[in-house]
Each structure stands twice: as C-alpha cells, then as structure tokens.
C-alpha cells in the first residue's frame, strides 16, 4: 500500500480512475480510428459519445489534435525535406551549437528580445488568461500543462479535471519511500529528486506496452499515462525530500482540497495564501523554454531512444542540476548572501560594484546574469519582480537584488564578454523563496525541476505522437575540420 501522498482517497479514487482509464482508452482508439477513416468532425461525433458513457478528458482532446499535426509533419518531410533551415559554422560546432536550428519543439518558442511564448502566449497574457485558484490572481500550473499539450487555453473545468486526475495518481509507492529514505540527507536534493523519478521507472506503462509490441502509432498513449502519473507525484516526491532533508523527517499529508501548486506549497510546510500564489506563478514561469536548453534537450534526446518518461525526465533533471543552468538559482542566493555577510548588510553602490568586479576578476561568472539565447531582461525575471513589488514590502535581500539589476549589466558590458548582460529567471527566484521561509538554497532547483517537468514531458508526448526519430547528429574531429579549412 502506498504510504505517502493522498493515501486515504487514493485506493477508491484509483479504482474509479482505472475504470475511466479503460473507458478513455476505448474512447481514444475510436477517435484515432475516425481520424484514419478521414471523418472530419471528430469532435462533433465525439461530443455525442460523451453524452453517453464517455467522459471528456485531456487525453481525448490531445488525440483530437494529433491528426492534423501529424499530416503537417509528414508533408514537411516528404515535400520539403531538402529545404535548408540552418547552416553550421566551425564556431557553432565548438560553441555548444548556439543558434543551430536542428530540432523541433512544438510547445514554446523563444525570441531573443521578447522572451518566451508558450503556444503563442507571452507571460503577461498567461497571467491574465489562465484559470486561477479561487480568490487567486496567479495562473494555475495545471493550465499551462493543458495549453502546452493541446495548444488551447483551458477553461476552469479543464483545469479542475487535471487537478483531480493528478490528485488521484499522486500516492508514492512504498518502494520509492524506501529508496529515498536510504539516501543520506546531505545528498544534494537534485540527486535525490532525480533518483526518486528514476526509481519509479519500474512502473512505466510505456516500457510495458513497448515490450508487449504496441504499434508506433500508439506510442503516445502509454507515454501520456506515464507523464500524468509522474507529474502527479512530483510535488509529493519533492516535499518528501525537503521534509526528510531539512525538517526532521516530519511529513505533511496532502490537502485534498488544494490544487497541484497550492498543495506543493502546503506539503513543503509553508502556509499562507501568498506562498501558494508564488508557487503557482513559479511553477508556470519555469515550465518551458523551447527545446534547446539543457534540461529540455536532454529529456528529448533520451526519449528519442524510446526510453520512457522516467528515464528521460531523470536525465533532464541531471542537466538542470548544473550551475550554468537550473542550479544558478541557488548560486544566486548563495552569492548574494555571501556578499551581504562580507559587506555587513545592504551595501552601497560602490561596494556592490567592487564586489561584482572581484567576482569577475577571480574568474567566476555573476550568477543569474547572461543567457544563451535572450538578449534582454528575461520576462520571467520581470514577472517575479512584479510579484515581489506587490508582496514583499521592505526586504533587505530584495533591495540588494534590485540594486544589482542596475549595477551588473553595465559592468558586464564594460567587461565585454557576455553577449547578454541582463538578468535571467534565476536572478530573482531565490529572494522570493527565501522571503517566505525556504531558507535551504540547495532545494531551489527542485522547484525549478518540478516546473520544468511540465514542459519537457508535454513535449515528450508530442515526440512520440509525431514519431520523431532517434537523435544521432554527426560529430567531426578537429583533424577533419583542419582538413576542410585547408580548402
Ligand atoms: N558573468 C560573467 N561572465 C559571463 C556571464 C556572467 N553572468 N555570462 C556570460 N559570461 C561569459 C561567458 O562565461 C563566456 O566567457 P568565455 O568566453 O571566457 O567562455 C562569455 O561571457 C560569452 O558567453 P555568452 O556567449 O554570452 O554566454 P553563453 O551562451 O556561453 O552562456 C550562460 C550562457 C547562461 C551559461 C552564461 O551567461 C552564464 O554562465 N551565466 C551565469 C550562470 C547563470 O545565470 N545561468 C542560468 C541561465 C538560465 C538557466 O538556464 O536557468
């Protein structure tokens, strides 16, 4: 029996859920059959079926979107496969493939100056248009998942359905708790998080169905089930790690009345509506950043070998744990706290300037500044700053973070190395988490990871739905490049 998560409700909910899953499977198969028979108004026919025993679901919605995109991709490859969309220079081959257009991600797109758009919507639009918790002002993460997966804005009911579904799938099995308990508490939380995700792999439905010989056309279906099961459990895994590592192994049961993000905040142990609102916003903002960043690309790459969602996400989380990527959020706070300790509180402009130069001159980066693609202040930074201005009031660390916003960009410009001197998402998240009492910086990247899972796992479902190939780019040796340069 599971012993953590929504235990009491889970057994009954699980049984009901399994019945609906079977119905959904029948449902989805019908939709696919209709599509392949070229019957146009699938949704219309489907809504008639729904009036009977069938219940509308996210899976059905996704299935109804599949056909046209599959057709488009087929046409792109078959009729325009030779059209060139990118060139690669020697500098790009050595320089982390910056700017090389060589992969497809449907869920979001990043403009260097405007920032991220999720299925065409920018961050202010998402904050306005996605459904909120009762009385809340920030968007619910369930909504961004719906949007990334289907390309459509959800209504309140769509979001509530996802909350309910994730709640029903959220219990952690005993064997996972045993593995987490066996990991030393001083192991970095990201190592624990990645291990927890990987441990669940034994229950992968995709792996099981693959072994049974499922058709390629249906890969997305068990992948969808794995993704839903995994996303449902992430807040409980993360909170378990937090309470085990920092709060004497005293755990907080899930609150069945709360949404995914609100319940995450509750299980971590920070009460109050403001922190729940922060969590919801945070989990939306960090969810997706197109396909080339390390966590997204790693998840996609590993998945391209038909590794299941557990293998793929665990690998993606290992990439997120690097200090140049997601770990930068803990590095920012550590750096800011060190400077405040060294300089005795809130420093003046001159002291801050000197501290920044000292950091650079000692060969380190200024964490939270710069970006591989962005060439402006990250709109995710702006959204978090907006939240801070609304809610934080007098806060010394926020004062320092704000002062750095004025001081760091001209310094990086003067140094002349960084292509983008502006702050990224990680420059602001720590001060917010710390303000509400999450004082353990090492945990910050786990919040990022739970959020990033929403985006990269939505993409993984699309990867399997579109039959994207195993990745195998060509590498060359420096000797080969030297030969080419000889002409
Ligand atoms: N401080 C000091 N130097 C910086 C810098 C910063 N914040 N940002 C970039 N540079 C340096 C690079 O280290 C590089 O130096 P070398 O030529 O000596 O190698 C040079 O400027 C050029 O780098 P770039 O092309 O502008 O940036 P990259 O695409 O190579 O790297 C990033 C992007 C984010 C890794 C880099 O800006 C950085 O290290 N920033 C600090 C760490 C950070 O905040 N990471 C989080 C990014 C967001 C996320 O993924 O979560």
Please sum up the structure shown.
Helices cover 61% and strands 2% of the residues. By secondary structure, the chain is an all-alpha fold. Strands 1-2 form a two-stranded antiparallel ribbon.
Keywords:
22 helices; two-stranded antiparallel sheet; binds carboxymethyldethia coenzyme *A; Citrate Synthase, domain 1; mainly alpha; single chain; 2% strand
The tally of structural domains comes to 1
Distance between the termini: 68 Å
Question: The CATH topology is what?
Answer: Citrate Synthase, domain 1
Strand order of the largest sheet: 1-2
Bound molecules: carboxymethyldethia coenzyme *A
| Helix content class | 55-70%
Question: What percent strand?
Answer: under 5%
Number of E strands: 2
- Architecture per CATH nomenclature, i.e. the level-2 architecture: Orthogonal Bundle
């Amino acid at each position: 029996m599971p012993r953590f998560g929504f235990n009491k409700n889970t057994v009954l909910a699980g049984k009901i859920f399994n019945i609906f899953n079977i119905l959904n499977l029948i449902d989805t198969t019908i939709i696919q059959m209709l599509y392949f028979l070229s019957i146009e108004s699938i949704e219309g026919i489907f809504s008639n079926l729904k009036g009977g025993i069938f219940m509308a679901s996210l899976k059905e919605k996704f299935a109804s979107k599949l056909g046209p995109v599959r057709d488009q991709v087929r046409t792109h490859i078959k009729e325009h496969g030779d059209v060139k969309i990118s060139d690669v220079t020697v500098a790009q081959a050595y320089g982390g493939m910056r700017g090389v257009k060589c992969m497809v991600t449907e869920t979001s797109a990043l403009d260097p100056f405007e920032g991220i758009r999720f299925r065409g919507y920018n961050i202010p639009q998402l904050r306005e248009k996605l459904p909120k918790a009762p009385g809340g002002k920030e968007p619910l993460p369930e909504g961004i998942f719906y949007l990334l997966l289907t390309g459509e804005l959800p209504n309140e009911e769509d979001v509530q359905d996802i909350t309910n579904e994730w709640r029903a799938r959220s219990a952690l099995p005993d064997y996972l708790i045993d593995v987490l308990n066996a990991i030393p508490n001083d192991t970095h939380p990201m190592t624990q998080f990645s291990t927890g995700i990987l441990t669940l792999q034994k229950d992968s439905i995709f792996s099981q169905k693959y072994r049974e010989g499922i058709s390629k056309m249906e890969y997305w279906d068990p992948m969808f089930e794995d993704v839903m099961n995994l996303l449902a459990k992430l807040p409980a895994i993360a909170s378990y790690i937090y309470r085990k590592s920092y709060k004497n192994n005293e755990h907080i049961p899930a609150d069945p009345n709360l949404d995914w993000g609100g319940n995450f905040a509750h299980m971590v142990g920070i009460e109050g509506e403001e922190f729940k609102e922060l969590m919801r916003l945070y989990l939306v903002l960090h969810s997706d950043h197109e396909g080339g960043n390390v966590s997204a690309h790693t998840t996609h790459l590993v998945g391209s070998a038909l590794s299941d969602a557990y293998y793929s996400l665990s690998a993606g989380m290992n990439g997120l744990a690097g200090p140049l990527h997601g770990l930068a959020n803990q590095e920012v706070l550590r750096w800011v706290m060190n400077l405040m300790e060294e300089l005795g509180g809130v420093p003046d402009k001159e002291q801050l300037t000197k501290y920044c130069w000292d950091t650079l001159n000692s060969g380190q980066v200024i964490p939270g500044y710069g970006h591989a693609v962005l060439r402006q202040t990250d709109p995710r930074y702006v959204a978090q700053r907006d939240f801070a201005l609304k809610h934080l009031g007098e806060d010394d660390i926020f004062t320092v973070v704000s002062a750095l916003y004025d001081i760091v960009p001209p310094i990086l410009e003067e140094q002349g190395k960084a292509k983008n001197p502006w702050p990224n998402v990680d420059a602001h998240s720590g001060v917010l988490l710390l303000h509400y009492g999450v004082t353990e910086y090492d945990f910050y990247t786990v919040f990022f990871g739970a959020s990033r899972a929403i985006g990269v796992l939505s993409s993984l479902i699309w990867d399997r739905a579109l039959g994207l190939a195993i990745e195998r780019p060509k590498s060359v040796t420096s000797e080969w490049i030297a030969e080419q340069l000889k002409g």
